[in-house]
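Exercise 7.
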Amino acid sequence: MNLNAEILKLADEYEQYIIDCRRKVHTFAEIATKEVKTHAFIVEEAKKLGLEVEEVPTTNVLVKLDTGRPGKTVALRADIDALPIAEPEDNLVGPRVCRSEQPNTCHACGHDAHTAMLLGAMQVLTRLKDQLSGTVIFCFEEGEEPNSGVMALLAALEKYKPDYTWGIHIYAGLEENKISVEAGPRMAGSTTVDVTFHGKSGHASRPDLAANPIFAAANFLNNLCVAFSNQITAGETVTMGIAMSNSGKVSNLIEETANIQGTFRVFNLEEGIKAREIAINVAEHTAAMYKCTAECSEKMKTFVFGPTVNNAERSAIATRVLNEVLPEGTVVECEPWYAGESFHYYLDKWPGVLAFLGIKNEAEGYGAPHHNDRFDFNEKILKTGAISTVRVAVEWMCEQ
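Solution. The predicted structure, written as tokens, is:
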């Protein structure tokens, strides 16, 4: 039996196991740093296979599969946290296959799928161990949503010296059971907008005796739009998502401060930094026009969340081997996704790929946006994700 056929046979054998894992993790959905049951379940499944387990604060888990033969080290990652969202009984069109049993908590982003696919891949790769060379590190990351676990996990992962890294995110913007592994920017980076305009308070009957920060804040937004259209590099994408504006409590009192908050989303880190500098400059000069001052938060001045960028060489290899093992037409191209992903930290350190696995099938009730209470997916996609993870891992491990 050739390798592809054996992977497909084992994936069929473990499909129900993967589905069962998904349902178990889904029912006891847990938010960031609280994934106690999820953590224990992952550890239990790894120990059943006799694999080496490292528990990393707070609820991260690393599992090591060493073939005992020289080869590459490949890190495979899944995130495990849920969201503080109540889950209704129905998806877009009817009853769900399974539902969270935790009040006001559910897997509305697909991390239950990611966890289950990686557990399935762990089973298959363990069965293939005697035919492989190199090492696999299975990385179960807590708290992807607030990025609470990634730094501790990466610090623990360093000692294994990964050569390559792989992850999957199921995606409501891609047709069901299609997979995208193309090179380049796949998910957006971001910078923070958080500007407080300081003026002078006063009674609304005498605005001339005050310095109204609301006008500074309002015109900051207008001026920022003009600056972006004239200063952002042509051909680059920087989205301006201003989501908060706060000032004032009563109609006849001019408050001393006004605050504006939001994010910029980018696929080019340098352009994101440039956008932040433009915003700071516009805020300071606009404030001066209205006899106010602008205070940009420390996070705005220093923090940049990088885009998730797939390595071209790793992407090409993944495309080739997945076209060999998956049905024709399964591997497709997909537009970048404007959400952020902590997997960018892995790809900043080690070349690799974040794959998109499509779930969109609105007629069947699947395809509600991520972080939406109607979010759901058809469990048949799980086998495709596990097959893809195994096939890519095997190829990368056994490179000479």
